[in-house]
Amino acid sequence: MAMEQLRSDKVAMICLGILVFFVLVALFSPLLSRAFGVTIDTPEANILLSTTGFDGMPVVGPPYNGFIWAHPFGIAPSTGTDNLAFWMYGARTSMGIALVSTVAATIIGITMGLVAGFARGPLEAVISWIIDFFLSLPFILVALSVAPILVSRFSTQPALLSASQLVALLLVLSLTGWMALARLIRGEVLSLREREFVLSARAIGVPTRSILRKELLPNLIAPIIVSFSLGLPAFVSAEAGLAYLGIGVTNIPSWGRTINAASNYYDTYPLYLWAPVAGVLTLVVALNLLGDSIRDAFDPKTRR
Predict the structure, then answer these.
(1) How far apart are CA 274 and CA 60, in angstroms?
(2) pTM of the predicted model as reported, rounded to 2 decimal places
């Protein structure tokens, strides 16, 4: 029933098509880069305009200069690298980090929510307090303060800097994005644990782990899918925002990193800025609308 409603939802199908497009770009960015003849490794600084007074305006790139197939999105004013290649590889980075963070946050949220909802006594109170504590923390301040500490702890060698930045970013996103799902799962489990099938399983001595895994978890699939679909665009936005603020992997192309670099050229070279902005905006809007459609399909009480 839910899948039939999704297939008949035109908005959901359009958003799914947009998502598939971005996934294909992310997966096949090396092949697409070679097909377009562009690369992120070989700057073409020799075609940069050296005249002062134009804020680094490049020779190639609309609207101030002509469009050429060799560089459809133009080239970066500061480095001479191709913007299309950075855009495609940036999609891979942003979507990959968002996906891993969403999966990790979902696993943490499910685990904490199940335990908090099914346990009684001090354990339930402690986990509920932890959820409320993390919800009270401002995300930006936590990211700005915790990420540099994690990077300094992990990057014992210069060669490990990129890996440590990636791990720090994933930890920050994962550890600050699980609480809403945990609270939702806890509320569902509080209701389900008084149902007959759960009480019967406990009466015949079924282990708690089996009750959680075989009795409760299958009844939580719908809210988990909805939460996952709505959490993914939030992590895409968060990754781009943190990269713009300088929290992220500095040696890997990402949309947020490009937006950070392009913000200095918004007036002389708007395409440099708006290409990654359009990518983030289009992907986030598509994921949000798709998430709303999934929620409407799996939860009849919220259908528009």
Answers:
(1) 16
(2) 0.84
